[in-house]
């Protein structure tokens, strides 16, 4: 497993080479939390805008590693405006824990943040929103296959099904009728457009993103029990297919 400092160095090197600028959002215990930005090139109209984040939970390395692959191999399309946070929780990543060093689950802290990490990422999202598509990369230690949460202003789930079909070529989906306490169908937990985000105080990042503008959001969950190469490949497939569909 990559140490957060090695991970950051690697991301920095490849992102600079591939035309991204880097912004340090804050530092926690000597680890920088940073965002990468790349402006869309050659688009006649204002470019579509995409937000991708990973590593909110420190024991879910597939997300950060998928972002490293997307940046290193320059797989994200150049016509988009991109805002990427490769590793939201470096102290958790260093210790292999879901929570940050202070023992807090950052993905319950995006409404009125009490932690430096979520506070910094919230400020970034507020200054950069609205997005046309946003993606939060996670893993699940209990699932048997890939699944995802979707919130979207249009209730048609055909886009989500197309993303899942691209993911399934890289490894199995979780077909359980209930996942993490929510009804699921074909590896999809589909939130309606009017999903009551205000009813909850402990917002995940997804709710903050959706509160800023009604756009397509997916929270991607790979199965931690599968080999890391498969989890990374599933994340990469989902990100690229979601972009193809929503931001052609
Ligand atoms: Zn997670």
Name the bound molecules: zinc ion
Superfamily (CATH H level) name: Zn peptidases
Total domains, how many?
1
Radius of gyration: 17 Å
Number of strands: 10
* Structural class label: alpha/beta
Q: How would you name the oligomeric state of the polypeptide chains in this document?
A: single chain
β-strand amount? 15-25%
Residue runs with pLDDT of under 50 for 5 or more positions:
none
- For the termini, the CA-CA separation is 34 Å
Would you kindly provide a written description of the structure presented here, covering whatever features stand out?
The chain is an alpha/beta fold. It has a single domain (4-246), classed as Aminopeptidase. It has 7 helices and 10 strands. The chain has helices spanning 4-17, 62-72, 90-95, 116-128, 158-168, 205-212, 228-246, and strands at 21-28, 31-38, 49-54, 81-85, 133-140, 147-151, 178-179, 182-183, 188-191, 216-223. The strands form 2 sheets. An 8-stranded mixed sheet has the order 1-2-4-3-5-10-6-9, with helices on both faces. Helix 1 packs parallel to helix 2 (62-72) and helix 5 packs antiparallel against helix 7. The longest helix has 19 residues, at 228-246. It starts with a helix and ends with a helix. The model has no long low-confidence stretch (mean pLDDT 94). Zinc ion binds next to loops.
């Amino acid at each position: 497993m990559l140490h957060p400092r090695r991970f950051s160095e690697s991301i920095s090197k490849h992102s600079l080479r591939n035309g991204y600028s880097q912004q340090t959002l804050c530092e926690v215990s000597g680890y920088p939390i940073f965002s990468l930005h790349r402006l869309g090139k050659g688009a006649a109209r204002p470019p579509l805008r995409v937000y991708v984040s990973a590593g909110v939970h420190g024991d879910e390395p597939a997300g950060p590693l998928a972002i490293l692959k997307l940046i290193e191999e320059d797989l994200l399309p150049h016509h988009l405006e991109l805002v990427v946070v490769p590793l939201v929780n470096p102290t958790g990543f260093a210790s292999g824990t879901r929570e940050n060093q202070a023992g807090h689950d950052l993905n319950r802290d995006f409404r009125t943040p009490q932690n430096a990490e979520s506070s910094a990422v919230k400020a970034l999202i507020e200054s950069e929103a609205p997005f046309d598509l946003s993606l939060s990369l996670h893993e699940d230690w209990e699932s048997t296959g890939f699944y995802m949460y979707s919130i979207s202003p249009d209730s048609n789930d055909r886009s989500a099904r197309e993303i899942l079909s691209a993911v399934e070529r890289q490894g199995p989906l979780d077909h359980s009728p209930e996942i993490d306490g929510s009804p699921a169908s074909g590896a999809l937990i589909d939130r309606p457009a009017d999903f009551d985000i205000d009813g909850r105080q402990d917002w995940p990042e997804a709710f903050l993103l959706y509160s800023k503008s009604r756009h397509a959001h997916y929270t991607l969950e790979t199965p931690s029990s599968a080999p890391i190469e498969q989890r990374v490949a599933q994340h990469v497939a989902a990100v690229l297919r979601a972009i193809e569909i929503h931001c052609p």
